[in-house]
Amino acid sequence: MSCSQPFALPEFYVGWPARLNPHVEQARVHSKAWAREVGILDTPVEDETPAVWDEDRLDAMDYALLCAYTHPDTPGPELDLVTDWYVWVFYFDDHFLDVYKRPRDAEGGRAYLERLPLFMPIDLNEVPPAPTNPVERGLLDLWARTVPSKSLQWRTRFFESTKNLLEESNWELNNIAQERVANPIEYIEMRRKVGGAPWSAHLVEHANFVEVPERIWDSRPMRVLKDTFADAVHLRNDLFSYQREIQQEGELANCVLVLERFFDIDTQRAADMTNEILSSRLYQFENTALTEVPALCEEYALTPPERQSVMLYVKGLQDWQSGGHEWHMRSSRYMNQPSATEESAPVPALLSAPTGLGTAAARLAGLSPRSAGLTRLRSHMHVPYQAVGPTELPDFYMPYTARVNPNLEQARRDCIQWCAAMGMHAALPGVPGAYLWSEQDTADFDFAQCSARLHPDPSGSELNVSTRWLAWGTYGDDLFPRLYATTRDLAGAKAQQARLAFFMPLDCSWMPPPANPLEAGLADLWRSTAAPMSIPQRRSFRDAVCKMTASWLWELHNHIQQRIPDPIDYIEMRRSTFGSDMTMNLARITHAGGLPDELFESRPMRGLENAAQDYGCLTNDVFSYQKEIQYEGELHNCVLVVQNFLTIQPAQAVLVVCDLMTARLHQFEHIISTELPFVADTYDLDDHDRQTLEDWITMMQDWMAGILDWHYLSGRYTPDRLRDRYTPQPPTPTRSPNHHPTGLGTSAAQPPTRLAVAAERSPVRAAEDAPTPGAPWERHLRAHGPAPFGPTG
To answer: Is the model's pLDDT at 2 over the cut of 70?
Structure first.
């Protein structure tokens, strides 16, 4: 490796060939003239702005080449416009660095950023103020040249992404001022906004003269395409820009640095790991485009022109990825020189591959498994139902103490009675002889223990409803893989999930007759929960429930492919599969209804809620690892995801997940101490609202502490009860001989229940399942006692 580079560039996976727009030279000439026109070059003295760039520096960075590679099919005038946008956005980044980041002028930076949205009027009849510097002057000109040809919906989306790109620079500035490096989950979330790739995705639509139909824009497949595109663009940039940002500019927002600090590893290993995440995001992009987008087009009955727009958008994102990589390899802005080993390595033989114009894609000889994209196969190679034994629990960081609702005992009784009344203890619909839960199981799970800690203050009737919601969500989460995963019945699962919306009418009136316990439970809960709510509150809560139930389809989709999910996709979907959005939405309605809605959409509040939710979700993954991996053949567990991604042992993966939990909780504490006071001032909260906000924070602290406590106390995860619950029972002697043949040689004709199938695939030895003496399970049970069995004893 060259002594001037902090690490050797890793082997990149680039799935599509880069192509160059023939209008590149025209764009170079135009963009330089435009940079002079708005003052980026030859900055006027009256602007009181330092000269950030000179002509030589602009030429060396060659943004026209970037845009020509990332938009290879765009006509000349459109390429000029797109190039001007990229000259402006990179200038903004360097200008903000010189004027506000290096001097650590947080107040000046905040005032500067607050003015910029004024130069992007969504209503084109509004008159912006007079610009005072090249950034404002350039933004005003670009906005007027870009948005008139697009719909109001596109214009609004583009405004939001540009606003995020500008405003979230404060997050970087605050971290620099506090010398704080983000945790990995926080970094990926914020990098999307600060890095600007979602903004680039909107320009892809403009450059290709298309718009993704508004009715599918917020769907999971389109959101994942945009997010994976953004993450891959940013992670690639972090690798190439590490030397400039970290060693020269004093930046702290770089994934390589984030992983160095989090894992305590050297720079080369962190760079290689960053590249692994980059490849995984590209694999996710491809998987979504090939397996989810076609189904989405059918589901929404898109017209042929609409489908063409979607496909051109996907193609545009692909072009951007490959073109962006090619530009990074050529631009003077980045570290892109080969290592000494690479310089001296012989060029691999092309064997019999064709040569000449147009044959580059056929020359695959010499590609490593990583650069050829073969590492994606690792996600499909997991063998389910492996006997993993009990999990040795780590020491969890938890600074808060859970409070317990005094109505716990009656909520326990009510939950068991309610589950029985809804039919949750009966045989599975359509699967005679197979049961999901018994009454004993419901007593063992002890959802009231959890609810009494999540909601320590409400009345007994309110606690009953809260406990029922936990039972219902868990029942549905258990039901979907049992009914649909083994048969790969995605159509049946979608039909069931779609029916659930009929049991949440906004006017609380007509519902169809429920056909199963899942529908019966939801119908009953909706009547008791939604009646006191306003229509907007009902809509918000229904959306949260639908988000959870839709996530069950995502899990089923992965099961059908036998695919361990991408780590980032997993974390972001886990909040829905765990039901944390649903429970927090309900708590927000009941505990923080007086606070303005926009407060909860602010970055600090979203960061606070996401950090708390991740702590709860990852808690569940650690405790449920044996249950899910050994007994259920599950693929959706963060311990397994980390184990597979990092190719480490389960015990090591548990510690990594525990470290992520700790990092998220530290972030939660950091936001409370450093950012919420500013948020309260920004929204001009009075004393009553500030107390409401304090109560909301206390609720989230109760939520995290209560979830951790419940996992220790519940019988849902303890090894002995797992063995009892999943061990197949001997056939009952009352089975009618008229249904199936009996006698010697007829055992194969007896249709086993799905539980029996799982148990046969998962041979369990009692010695393996015995709790380790003195393990955290045992210590906690000694302190708190076992979970009660309820009325059945």
So the answer is: no
Dist CA 695 CA 712 (whole Å): 26
Residue of 19, 23, 24, 95 lying closest to 57 (CA atoms): 95
Give SS3 for 435.
Answer: strand
Split at pLDDT 50, 70, 90, the class of 732 is very low
For tokens 């962190």, name the residue: 270
Give the pair of three-digit tokens for residue 35.
Answer: 């940079």
Instruction: Label residue 337 by pLDDT band (50, 70, 90).
Output: confident
**CB atoms near residue 329 (< 10 Å):** 17
Amino acid at 707: I
Residue 532: other Cβ atoms inside 10 A = 10
- Among the listed residues 386, 389, 387, 385, the one whose alpha carbon sits nearest the alpha carbon of residue 768: 389
Axis crossing angle, helix 535-561 with helix 567-577, rounded to the nearest 10: 130
Cβ pair 85, 38 in contact under 8 A: no
Tokens found for residue 11: 């082997």
Cβ atoms of residues 162 and 120 within 8 Å: yes
- Cα radius of gyration rounded to whole Å, the chain: 28
Domain architecture of the chain: domains with CATH? 24-338 (1.10.600.10), 387-729+746-792 (1.10.600.10)
As a whole number, the mean pLDDT across the chain is: 86
92-106, 582-596, 640-654: range with lowest mean pLDDT: 582-596
**Average pLDDT rounded to a whole number, residues 425-442:** 88
**3 state DSSP class of 409:** helix
Question: pLDDT, tens digit, for every residue of 21-65?
Answer: 999 999 999 999 999 999 999 888 887 788 899 999 999 999 999
Residue 791 has what pLDDT?
A: 30
Helices (H), 423-534: 439-445, 447-454, 460-480, 490-500, 517-530
Check residue 164 and give its pLDDT: 83
**How far is Cα 690 from Cα 157, in angstroms, rounded to an integer?**
31
With beta carbons less than 8 A apart as the criterion, state whether 343 and 336 touch: no
Contact by Cβ (8 Å): 641, 570: yes
> How many other CB atoms sit within 10 Å of the CB of residue 409?
13
What's the pLDDT score for residue 171? 76
Query: Is residue 740 within a helix (H) or strand (E), and if so which, with residue range?
Result: none
Cα 752 from chain centroid?
38
The span from the CA of 400 to the CA of 388, in Å, is: 31
Q: Is the pLDDT of residue 683 over 60?
A: yes
Cβ atoms of 187 and 571 within 8 Å: the answer is: no
The enclosing H or E element of 673 equals: helix 650-674
Closest CA to 9 of 500, 435, 338: 338
Q: Where are the beta strands (DSSP E) in 532-610?
A: none
**Mean pLDDT of all residues in 510-533:** 95
d(CA 689, CA 679): 12
Query: How far are the Cα atoms of 105, 112, 114, 115, 573 from residue 108, in angstroms, in the given order?
Result: 5, 6, 10, 11, 37
pTM to 2 decimal places:
0.86
Residue 177 has what pLDDT?
80
Return contacts of 40-46, CB within 8 angstroms, 24+ apart. 40/87, 40/88, 40/91, 40/134, 40/138, 43/134
